[in-house]
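Friendly challenge for the regulars: who can give me the structure tokens for this chain first? No prize, just bragging rights.
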Amino acid sequence: MIAASDLRAGMTFVQDGKLIKVLDASHHKPGKGNTVMRMKLRDVRSGSTYDTTFRPEEKFEKAMIETKPVQYLYSQDDVAIFMDLETYEQYEIPVSTVEEEMKYILENMEVKIQFFGDEVIGVTLPTSVILKVVETQPSIKGATVTGSGKPATMETGLVVNVPDFIEEGEMLEINTQEGTYQKRANK
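First reply, four minutes later:
Bragging rights claimed.
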């Protein structure tokens, strides 16, 4: 069992038979009354997100999540196909379940899939990925890193704000937690 005050973003717990993932958690102390935990949560199975509050002392059953290294093969219709790197077993995950993660995944890329018992519940990304810029405005001569930046579309369809000197065709390192440009990738 885990107390609501110990829940952090990324943790998963069971509530009323539902598998719930914490997207955001913060302490809130109103002017009057007791401290509460404000949470943004997602039902892992249905994909719905909602905001709620808990008393800090409320207890929940922590979900035991296992991960396996896999390779992303391809998407067909509305299913993403992943292959276990050890047993070569293939897993089909509905694209709607991993829609946000798919913006960072290229074919043949290694990621980890998450299991709750035998049920596949999601994908864990590396902290950063290298993607190619397929569309952006022309670079501005004399542009510096401190400029306001411009939008760039990556090869997966992800749109990231990048510095003005970045050009189409460049390989960039992208932070997967925040969806932000980190630096040019080494060539």
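The mean pLDDT is 81. Residues 7 and 166 are 39 Å apart (CA to CA). Your move, everyone else.
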